[in-house]
Amino acid sequence: MYLGIDIGTTATKAILVDESQRTLARATQDYATSRPAPGRSEQDPALWIGAVQSVLAVLRQSRPDAFAAVRALGLSGQMHSLVTLDAHHDVVRPAILWNDGRGAEQCAEMTASVPDLAEISGVLAMTSFTAAKLLWLRQNEPQLYDRVAHVLLAKDYVRFWLTGEIASDMSDAGGTQLFDQAQRQWSPAILDGLGIDRALMPPLLEGYEIAGRLRPAIAAQLGLRAGLPVACGGADVGTGAIGLGCAAPGSGFISLGTGVVYFVAQDRYAPKPDLVLHNFAHCTPGWYQMAAMLNGASALNWARKLMGVADIGALVSKVEARYAGPSSLMFLPYLSGERTPHGDSDIRGAFFGLSPASEPVDIAQAVMEGVAFSIRQADELLTQAGSPCAVPGLIGGGAQSLLWCRILSTVLGRNLARYDDADLGPSLGAARLAMIGEGGCDVSEIATPPDREEVISPFLDQIERYDRWFEAFKAMFPAVSAYSSHSDL
């Protein structure tokens, strides 16, 4: 038996699987994000610990015998979020999350201080990444920065709580912008150029390597065996890929979660920062090319709250019942700025075509389509960069909507693959890393595609209409860009 735990942005998810990777039990615990000021996004790491305790209690109650027989556990987590500990291993301040927009000034300083930053780190300087957040902390909260002894990512903090060991893996380190992707190590050039002490950064392991063992007190609390091996784990993008069997070059997936990730595995490091693509280390040996969009299912949830709708599922059902082609409205989904393809934390979203006749169902469909158009832009850039993906898999909460999947398939103009329990991809990937680390088996033996998949096909009669609407989507971007550049007037 194996456990996989995913520390997400809005919830922690856990699964219990047997040696055949059959899911025996699953659990989810939601938590809130603090927004102390516009553009800021934080979480108390204690929320993650409480959520882990909650989900494991559910698994234990659901399958007590199987839970007691767990042989190893693995972890997955939200990328980029800055967790800081002092010399006593106490949390210095709330974690600054990946979708926090502070750090724009620091990004400019980073680019000037380290001219080869993008080539070394695999991506242009952006506020989403850990480096900009750490520099912001140093410049704006120096009394707190001076206390920092350890810099971790979200899942690393949870693993520290479980084992008492400080560590991180290549894929999460790859998302900090402090990492040399080609050499798979912390970058002396970046750390020295930014004046960051190497001692702050954790030791690095591959995602499947055992990073520690369950502390007796925590084991007793959770109902697991003391000394249980805990795999280092990986960033949710990498673990989601392993959960879908995306380790071989050319295999890939689209994660339609809070944000959107479009992933294609590679066997080499081939950065394309000029295309606002990310080239990062995988959580197993290898690399991947990735487009990252900050606004995915979160945009639909925002629309739900804006319209005072309690149940997002009911809203989507109304869209499904009335769907007859593209919405009469156009939505540009840049509520939290954007990474791919614009690399601009200051741009904001917009609706076009609103009228007195516009209804919540029109707005909801336009949001779904706007996200799909953004994904098509990413698809074109990945193809241009030499990393096409013939049939991407679909995971994430948004993938549970068949209509949204078919709209995306239509916008892309080709079939997609949707898997059972698609939202558990990172959790399954974490469990698979634990299996590899504990059993010493080869990655290819464990990281196989799911047995059951559903082919998602386009609305063939709508492809041409969506092609025209996509051109309109791109043509409207200068309007939001110009507005954002003058939003302080």
Give a verbal description of the structure.
This is Xylulose kinase. Residues 253-436 form the Carbohydrate kinase FGGY C-terminal domain. Keywords: ATP-binding, Carbohydrate metabolism, Kinase, Nucleotide-binding, Transferase, Xylose metabolism. The active site is at 236 (proton acceptor). With 489 residues, this protein is an alpha+beta fold. The protein has 18 helices and 24 strands. The strands form eight sheets. Strands 18-19-17-16-22-23-24 form a seven-stranded mixed β-sheet. The chain starts with a strand and ends with a helix.
- CATH level-four homologous superfamily name of the domain at 2-237: ATPase, nucleotide binding domain
Number of discrete helical segments: 18
CATH topology of the domain at 2-237: Nucleotidyltransferase, domain 5
Number of strands: 24
Distance between the termini: 59 Å
Could you say which overall geometry the principal axes of the C-alpha atoms support? Answer: globular
Q: What's the CATH class of the domain at 2-237, please? A: Alpha Beta
Radius of gyration: 21 Å
Q: Order the strands across the largest sheet as they lie in space.
A: 18-19-17-16-22-23-24
Described by strand count, sense and barrel closure, the largest sheet is: 7 strands, mixed
Proportion of residues in extended strands: 15-25%
Based on secondary structure, the structural category is: alpha+beta
What is the CATH architecture term of the domain at 2-237? 2-Layer Sandwich
Oligomer: single chain
Unreliable sequence segments: none
**Percentage of residues in helical conformation:** 25-40%
> Averaging pLDDT over every residue, what do you get?
92
